[in-house]
Design goal:
Blueprint: H1 3-15, E1 20-21, H2 22-31, H3 54-57, H4 59-75, E2 82-87, H5 93-102, H6 106-111, E3 112-117, H7 121-133, E4 141-144, E5 154-159, E6 168-173, E7 176-184, E8 190-195, H8 205-209, E9 218-221, H9 223-235, E10 239-248, H10 250-253, E11 263-267, E12 270-272, E13 283-286, E14 288-289, H11 290-299, E15 303-309, H12 310-316, H13 319-327, H14 332-346, H15 348-354, E16 355-362
Parallel strand pairs: 2-3, 2-5, 3-4, 5-10, 10-14
Antiparallel strand pairs: 1-7, 6-7, 6-9, 7-8, 10-16, 11-12, 11-13, 15-16
């Protein structure tokens, strides 16, 4: 790791008695204003970065999400204004595709306002630049570092947002639950240490959540994400919270044989299993426990509207029909490339099964969403 990162981490460690909880370490590694992975100007998303997201692969993804947003607007009786809040918008690619596609629906576009929630100055600058290059009226766009105080009618959208929130990393010890912390190893690097559970984590959390770990097994607990879900429930008055991320139900997440947990790093499109390797220089993520997110959302007053895989969600929104329309005007080579990209979004062995889609909302009872019409799997939660 760079000397700057180690120096900054060492200062924080000394100030905290030589040990940080992993949650705090992950927060620093990703969001520290001087060296945090998301806060600096390095390339992170796309072919030249460390990982790729669905919106970066093809505009079809954003187009179909726009159709879902238009449907939500119509189910809410076409309110004006209608607020679309995107969490952690990255390069701005998804927002640009959403706003560009929205122009095809004049009533919706007239009512629409876009709020981009991002703490990274670099990402904010990239988002503004891309939106301008796509002729998006910035009068319809605003930026914030946290959720709006209130969304009267709208959609709160997060694509690969929850997985980047800091997690508590825990291990079952012989005498009860322990938390994994981070300390200096004396050789210019970092090491993990076992510490008592750090508030708000406590020894009884796994029991209350119905999670069983054998001695020596590890897992991640998304308490920060759960807090965010409850807050989103407070903010959203009428509309839908739509989340797309890689993850599983609690039963699948904590199934036997997965005792090492789901915490990984991504650097140069390679998976890094040691989360301490490159702090500030690689992405750190953990799979999402969607069952826990549903419980937190319900605690915030939201109703469960649907849960399915990304593949089924896109099929429900008509990706095959849209693909056929788009390829009619293309050369055979370009059409083949687009079909291959669409298959990557949908196929089970690619992103189609690994990524899940969760919809929760308020004021939407008994109003089905097209993205879940073919294979709603909420009973698995």
């Amino acid at each position: 790791m760079s000397s700057l990162v180690l120096q900054k981490l060492a200062e924080v460690l000394v100030a905290n008695g030589g040990v940080l909880s992993f949650r705090r370490f992950m927060e620093l590694a990703l969001y520290h204003p001087d060296f945090g992975y998301y806060m600096t100007g390095r390339a992170r998303i796309g072919r030249e970065g460390d990982f790729v997201t669905s919106p970066e692969l093809t505009s079809l993804f954003g187009e179909l999400l726009t159709l879902q947003c238009v449907e939500i607007w119509e189910l809410l009786d076409r309110p004006k204004p209608f607020c679309l809040v995107e969490m952690g918008g990255g390069t701005g690619r998804l927002s640009a595709d959403l706003m560009t596609t929205a122009r095809r629906f004049p009533g919706f576009f007239d009512a629409l306002s876009l709020v981009l929630v991002d703490t990274s100055p670099d990402f904010r600058a990239r988002q503004e630049q891309l939106l301008l290059s796509c002729d998006v009226d910035l009068g319809k766009v605003s930026w914030r570092s946290d959720l709006p105080e209130r969304v009267e009618h709208g959609v709160i959208l997060g694509n690969e947002f929850l997985d980047a929130l800091p997690i508590h990393w825990v291990e079952m010890g012989g005498e009860g639950l322990l938390e994994i912390g981070v300390s200096l190893n004396g050789e210019g690097g970092l090491k993990t240490v076992l510490i008592p559970p750090q508030p708000p984590m406590d020894e009884g959390y796994l029991v209350r959540a119905g999670i069983e770990l054998a001695v020596g097994e590890r897992t991640e607990v998304g308490l920060v994400a759960a807090d965010w879900m409850r807050e989103a429930g407070r903010v959203l008055q009428n509309g839908v919270l739509l989340l797309i991320d890689y993850g599983d139900t609690a039963k699948e997440y904590h199934s036997p044989g997965r005792g090492a947990g789901r915490l990984v790093g991504h650097r140069g499109h390679e998976r890094i299993d040691d989360p301490l390797c490159f702090p500030g220089e690689m992405d750190l993520t953990a799979h999402v426990d969607f069952s826990a997110m549903v419980r937190a959302g319900q605690a915030g007053g939201l109703d469960l509207l649907g849960y399915t895989t990304q593949g089924w969600f896109l099929l429900g929104l008509g990706i095959l029909e849209r693909l056929e329309q788009a390829t009619r005007r293309m050369s055979e080579e370009a059409a083949m490339a687009l079909r291959q990209t669409a298959m990557r979004l949908m196929m089970p062995q690619e992103m189609g099964e690994r990524f899940k889609v969760l919809a929760m909302g308020r004021g939407m009872k008994e109003r089905g969403l097209s993205g879940f019409r073919l294979n709603d799997q909420r009973q698995r939660l």
